[in-house]
Design a protein that fits this description.
By secondary structure, the protein is mainly β. Helices cover about 10% and strands about 35% of the residues.
């Protein structure tokens, strides 16, 4: 069991293993794409490189690589769908891609995009892929390295000209999607299969969302199967797995400039960000 962070220190970015109790981070050699497949398969650990650093002396970055593909699936918690007025379980989840430019790290300021006045929050469990070829494995979660916290911030007032929502405008907004603070390896959640862990989101200290990931309509294996039927995934790729009820779209309480958002997942940690000014 370990927590793996992507960080910057003295102008250099690297990966490291976090010791929360000691408040330290041990840098390791190479990139997630180098040691991720072997670690996911249970063959050793990353090689330490240099001396441990104090967590307070580094900047935590989003736990992804320069080549990461970021995929999201939606409609995955019934309580959320019910409060949005859905009366029947959808026959399938739906997916979307996020550009790398949308992702920010812990404690970074979240941009308030010009195209929206209804900026919304969505705490989500995010699977981080470690294997090179998920199609060769008995089940997709065998290829998951671990899990991190995501806040799949959405612009709700982005209708499509053909009806429904314009998912590109809703989900692909520059510097609007926080991810982090680090990856907790999947053995902390019992290994492959569906994690059962608590997800919570607070805005300015007020709890807005709370649920457990066992409430998903489609478990992580099924979400990955949906994605893999359409596109391949590899080391460092991310999968957002959907959010529960309590979002601003349900009661009209959207994010405002200066709001402090804390997305927390049990056994991972807290992802904290502040909303920036309107343009």
């Amino acid at each position: 069991m370990m927590k793996i962070a992507h960080f910057r220190h003295q102008g250099r970015s690297a990966w490291g293993i976090v010791d929360i109790e000691a408040g330290e981070l041990q840098p390791v050699a190479g990139d997630l794409t180098d040691w991720g497949p072997a670690l996911t398969a249970g063959h050793g650990t990353p090689t330490p490189e240099g001396k441990p650093l104090q967590l307070g002396d580094v900047q935590l970055l989003p736990p992804l690589t320069a080549t990461s593909t970021i995929v999201g699936v939606g409609m995955n918690y019934w309580s959320h769908l019910e409060k949005l007025g859905v009366t029947e379980r959808p026959p399938s989840t739906l997916g979307f891609l996020k550009p790398r430019a949308a992702i920010i790290g812990p404690d970074e300021e979240m941009a308030y995009p010009e195209i929206t006045k209804q900026l919304d929050f969505e705490v989500e469990l995010v699977a981080v892929i470690g294997a090179s070829d998920l199609s060769a494995l008995p089940r997709p979660t065998d290829g998951v390295l671990g899990y991190t916290v995501g806040n799949d911030v959405s612009a709700r007032d982005t209708p499509s000209p053909l009806g429904g929502f314009d998912l590109f405008s809703m989900k692909a907004l520059d510097r609007s999607t926080p991810v982090g603070p680090w990856i907790t390896t999947k053995d902390e959640f019992g290994g492959s299969g569906q994690p059962d862990t608590e997800i919570v989101l607070r805005v300015n200290g007020e709890e807005r969302q709370r649920d457990r990931t066992r409430s998903m309509l489609w478990n992580v294996d099924e979400c990955l199967e949906y994605v893999l039927a359409r596109t391949s995934l590899g080391p460092g790729d991310l999968l957002f797995t959907g959010t529960t009820d309590g979002v601003g779209a349900e009661d009209g309480r959207y994010l405002e400039p200066g709001d402090v958002i804390e997305a927390e997942i049990e056994r991972i940690g807290v992802l904290r960000n502040t909303v920036g000014p309107r343009p």
